[in-house]
Amino acid sequence: MNADSNRAPQLRNGGRSTAPQLIKNIPMAGDEDTTSDMRRLIPAWIISGVIHVVLLSLFLLVSVSQGRGSDQTELSVIESRVEEDARDKNLTNEEIGNDPDLPTNYNVDRIEEVSVPGPVSNDAVGILNAPDGPPQTIPPPPGFGGTNGQGGGIDDPNRIGSGGLYGTPGGMGGPKLVPGGFGGRSGATREKMLREGGGNSRSEAAVAAGLKWLSRHQATDGHWSLHEFTVHGKCNCAGNGTHNDIAATGLGLLPFLAAGETHKGVGKHVMYAKVVERALKWLIANEGVDGKLGEGYAHGICTVALCEAYGLTADPMLKGPAQRAVNCMVSWQNETGGFRYSPRTDHDLSVAGWHIQALKSAQMSGLNVPNATMAGVNNYLERNQAVPDGSGYFYREKTPPTPRMTAVGLLGREYMGWGPRNPGLAKGVEYLRKLQPSPAYKDIYYYYYATQVVHQFGGPAWDEWNPKMRDLLIDTQDQGGNPDRRCQKGSWDPAGDPFNSQMGRLCFTSLCLLTLEVYYRHLPLYRRELGAAKDEALKNGL
After folding, report:
1. Are 285 and 164 part of one and the same domain?
2. Are residues 150 and 203 in the same domain?
3. Is the domain of 165 the same as that of 194?
4. Is residue 87 helix, strand or coil?
5. In a domain, 215, yes or no
6. How many domains is the chain built from?
7. 372-423 residue pLDDT tens
8. How many CA atoms lie within 13 A of 442 on its CB side?
9. Are 262 and 269 in contact (CB under 8 A)?
10. Which contiguous run of DSSP H or E holds residue 423?
């Protein structure tokens, strides 16, 4: 205190500063004036506290919002992954598949598996401001304008069954969605048809397991065997059939093709590309110079397989063998329009059923099928109907209709153009509905045909039929529970079927798979006629 007092007067006396000096008052112990000083500091403390509270609040708000944002991002990623896993339906997983359960609706617009991102350009095509060139005469693109192009369009009414399957008549744009065609076997279209047709995750898992079983029992050279499939599978599976390797190879191949599996291995369908390739090479190597692929059933089944493989891929290496098989079939048709075991000799509706499927597959693949051949098929179906309205069919002679042959005949009628408004078809479907899928009745040949007929017919008949057929096949598939025969997992036991000894486990499994693949194997032959259910004339005919 004394030093400070002496220094201040010295500054003033020296003339170096005339401003009043601020003297700091430091309270000492015992001062009585400290209370007033404390009161003077309170406003500053309040202001400082408010500022700190505001800053702390802002900091907390920013932290919480960032935390919430990160949580939302994490949740959205998790949800996206779950959805992606659920959509992995490439028929290679025995445990996971689709889980749709929606009513039938045949709006099957195709969505490609791969799309290219980017804006759509509306710029003019060609050189900007270029003058018009001189008129020139050039051939139309392939398939354009009926027979004037390089093959005639698949839509050309004057050349039914000619032209290429792919895209527009010019061949662009991917597989055409022709009625009954193969465009529903892959991508989003297959998923949509499965969902809307009544398939589910269990049915797809059953298909996956069945394809795996078939692939394990293929011979190294590509063929399958009805009687020696256990040799190629190196297993002790039960259920050998008759000796017919040609028919067995066609039957082994068809379920893969029905699932969209080809030798090209496009998109998700790559796992069984080699399996399909080996089988196709074996069939082609064993095809006669006249296109013959075995007798009777075998030729029909294998022709279906070759035509479908060509229709799915447009591979030119398959066109010749497929067309030769079709030509051979055409030459076998007898004067009644039917087919049997040898050329132009006899007929029965059972053999004819596979030949009719093959001819329709050839048409849908863009191969040449004479109009006269299809007209003969129509005449043959007329000849083999057991009742005048065509609602029932027999095997060979004028006998009462049977469920099995009625199913074969009705599918042929649908291929030839009968729709839900046809009283004969509607009455025939009602006849089939009397023999519903049941564990008490085992006949896969009947179920294979009847399921296709009712599926194409649609409506309440399909809504009633489908869950029974689907669940019966799922529940009876071998799950590998027998420790002595675990190799049977994914197959079906033919014991108890009327044709057990002829078909064996391989043929029986193939037909079961084709029946479970009915949702997407063929596109609808016709759009649902919503007025058919209300048609009084149709109701009166039932």
Report:
1. no
2. no
3. no
4. coil
5. yes
6. 2
7. 999 999 999 998 899 999 999 988 877 788 999 999 999 999 999 898 889 9
8. 13
9. yes
10. helix 423-433
